[in-house]
Design a protein that fits this description.
The protein is of the alpha/beta class. About 40% of the residues lie in helices and about 10% in strands.
Length: about 190
């Protein structure tokens, strides 16, 4: 969809996979954490698939709860060791750089705050955001719709929002939150 961005539009940017390709650094962080906790080496199943907690359970099905939690904790700590393996998604970064001068630009991510800020700072992107909104969990310890949460938190109309997102389930969340323009070509 061809879209002109107006001065009233608010731009929402996802981080992982949208602004920055973090798959390799994420995988290497998990790999090091798994090795630290279990003394086992893993190999990535699919380079194009993001290694996450669900995949961790598949490749290490016999982890105790404490081992699982320790791996998650260490993965976050080790991430800084692999920042050089992150890569900017230049076409989306260019949009951020151009419109951060005239529009509200909001990071809306399910990434934890420390890792998101570390990644943005590494790539010198932090200063281009009006506001940063990080992973939110509800009272049942479940992830919530980050787009709906951001719209409510900022008290804005979803019709003003243009979202940049790479993950299909998150695109559906954006649509469910009433965002009508997602990943436009400029």
């Amino acid at each position: 969809m061809k879209k002109n961005i107006g001065i009233d539009n608010i731009l929402f940017f996802d981080l992982d996979g949208t602004l920055v390709d973090t798959n390799l650094s994420n995988y290497l962080s998990y790999k090091k954490a798994i090795k630290s906790v279990t003394n086992k080496t893993i190999n990535q199943i699919d380079e194009n698939q993001r290694f996450n907690r669900s995949i961790l359970k598949k490749v290490q099905p016999n982890l105790t709860d404490s081992e699982y939690e320790k791996i998650i904790q260490l993965k976050e700590e080790y991430y800084k060791d692999f920042l050089e393996h992150t890569k900017l998604k230049q076409s989306v970064v260019n949009i951020l750089l151009q419109y951060s001068k005239t529009n509200s630009t909001i990071l809306v991510t399910n990434c934890r705050e420390s890792r998101a800020v570390m990644t943005l700072d590494y790539h010198r992107l932090t200063k281009h955001f009006t506001r940063l909104i990080f992973r939110q969990i509800n009272n049942d310890n479940l992830k919530i719709n980050k787009y709906q949460n951001a719209i409510l938190y900022l008290n804005i109309s979803p019709k003003l929002v243009i979202a940049f997102e790479d993950e299909e389930s998150e695109i559906n969340d954006a649509k469910n939150a009433g965002i009508q323009v997602i990943n436009p070509t400029i």
